[in-house]
Amino acid sequence: MIHLKAAQIIGVSFLTAALFSLTACQSTHAQGQAPGMPVSIVEVRPQTVPIYGEYAGQTFGRDMVEVRARVDGYVESRTFEAGTDVKAGQVLYTLDQGPYAAAVQKAKADLEQSMANLDFAKNQVALAQAQANLLQAKANLLKAQQDVDRLQPLVSQDAATQQDLDNALAALDANKANVTALTANVDQTRLQTRTNADLAAAQVESSRALLKAAELNLGYATIAAPVAGRIGDSIVQVGGLVSRGAGQPLTTIVPLDPIWVRFNISDTEYLDYMNSPERQQNHVLPVKLYLADGSEFPYTGEIRNNVNQLDTRTGTLEIDCTFPNPKHVLLPGQFARVRVLKQHAKDVLVVPQRAVRETQSMQSVFTVGSDNKVQVRNIVTGDRVGDDWIVTQGLKPGDRVVVEGVQKIGPGSPVQPSPYRPASASGKPPQG
After folding, report:
1. Most trustworthy range by pLDDT among 140-144, 154-158, 180-184, 201-205
2. Residue 234's beta-bridge partner residues?
3. How many CB atoms lie within 10 A of CB 359?
4. Concatenated DSSP letters of 63-112
5. What is the strand order of the sheet 222-224 is part of?
6. pLDDT digits 0-9 by tens, 58-100
7. Cα distances (angstroms) measured from residue 39 to each of 72, 115, 280, 356, 378
8. Is-contact 374 411, C-beta < 8 A?
9. Which of 111, 139, 345, 393 fits a 20 to 30 Å CA distance from 95?
């Protein structure tokens, strides 16, 4: 019985060892045939891509307007709230109009008086009287001459006395002198009448100018927005006194549509910009704007102008551009990132940024050979294009580059490659 039990134990041991050996062999065989790590790859092909320059920019209001009073007066009403949008011509302040309305009434009365004086001067009453007196004097002269002509033959015939003739001659001389004097008076009166008419006409024009000035001052008592835009706070409240000579404006208005954005570029970039084919063809390059939260501003801007010289301290040139801002989302003073199209790079190889590894100032990617095993390629990158890098050295057309699964593989690792499918664009600019 003892020998039988010992034989049974030895048999079980051999069977267990055989099963363990078979399992180990099967496991080893399975490991040799195990599939590689799944990875996502892109096959690089020559393509034409746009190259953008990215710069730090800041928004500003180019045509900010200071609202000032043109006349003195107390504020009777204020019709706006600080930080709201106002339209051009919208009433902002109303001043006390009483003094200016009275000045208009006085100016109107003065104008009417001046016009009456002009009418009187044009009627030439004094000249008509002088001319009538001259006519009367000429009639008297004619009668005196007739008396002399009648008495002279009578005196020669002793039919009339010499005394009568002498009196007639004296009267004739007196009438001649009177006609001469009245003729001069007519000429002088005519000149005076013309002068008076000119003075009256000038007075009418002066009165009209004074009325116009009074009406303007009355109109200035109502202060309206000169432009449309976002209005600031008011330094004078209702009941306060405003003066046209005040050092500070009543408030300010900043036009927000379009909004201006300024950024700086180097002198080399400026020369590249001036000589770029895109600028030669389009004259105005499109500009994209990315806000502080990383979101893309939905409207495309245009470069408008630049300052006339470089900043010698920084060696940069300020560029100004405009963006449509119909919803007034952008305000002056905001910081943003500006993207400007520089050129189109032709026949270049591009790989996603996430596929590039950087170690000790070296860049490399994993590629998959025809045997589906991983290889390491050192590369040199150029410009960044969105979420991709342009590769200038290290790759050739047709190379398959690993994009996803890089962390789980190494040189010589077998892999199961599948096409890389990038996620949908987020609308944010590339980071880094």
Report:
1. 201-205
2. none
3. 7
4. T-EEE--SS-EEEEEE---TT-EE-TT-EEEEE--HHHHHHHHHHHHHHH
5. 222-224, 91-95, 73-78, 241-242
6. 999 888 899 999 999 999 999 999 999 999 999 999 999 999 9
7. 79, 99, 44, 15, 19
8. yes
9. 111
